[in-house]
Amino acid sequence: MKEMKRMKTTVLIVGLSLGLTAVASGLASAQTVQTAPKYVTIDGEVVRYVPGRTIVIRGADKKEVLYTLSPTLTMPADVRVGRRVTLFTEPGEDGGTQLVSRVTITSVTPDGSVQKVTEDTRNLPSGATTKTTTITTSGRVEAYEPGKTLTITRADGSQATYIINRSSMVPSDLVIGKSISIVPTASGELVVKTITYTPVKSPR
Fold first, then answer.
1. Are 104 and 142 contained in the same domain?
2. Is 153 exposed, middle or buried (0-12, 13-18, 19+ CB in 10 A)?
3. What is this structure's pTM?
4. Using an 8 Å Cβ cutoff, are 119 and 131 in contact?
5. pLDDT tens digits for 12-55?
6. Could you tell me the residue range of the domain that residue 190 belongs to?
């Protein structure tokens, strides 16, 4: 009898030990589960703007939403009330607040070019700050001479001719009639850096 009681006691202790181990393992697993960072893109019209602090955007649904600007954000100079912009947000240090980290605006240059200007500011580990400005022009291919020139017709009906050189990244199947977006070189000249296709919206 004593031997049976001893065996039952041993089984009970082992069972409790396994149960506690499973519970502890479950808690540890729960503690290590992390949600992926949430990155959001918002399009709309600027309703209110407090430089360095906040911006209010009215979306397609006519709702107005307040967004907090990241302390490291360098806002494009043309951002103002009534301007249409795209905001790129990322989680703040608390993991909950969405901070605006990058802003894209649509502007018209003196020569009539419709462009998207993106200004992106990054903080390097060394403490230095880098600022990159990317200008993208969209349109339909009107004329194309491989390796030499490319002419596009923009949304406003104006045309622009770009030079294609050895460093230009051009799709191999590019043909007249394609809708494209062009990023020119940083030299300020109409020289193609990259070309990407622009999706054509189907009529509703």
1. no
2. middle
3. 0.44
4. yes
5. 454 545 455 554 455 444 444 444 455 677 878 899 999 999 99
6. 138-197
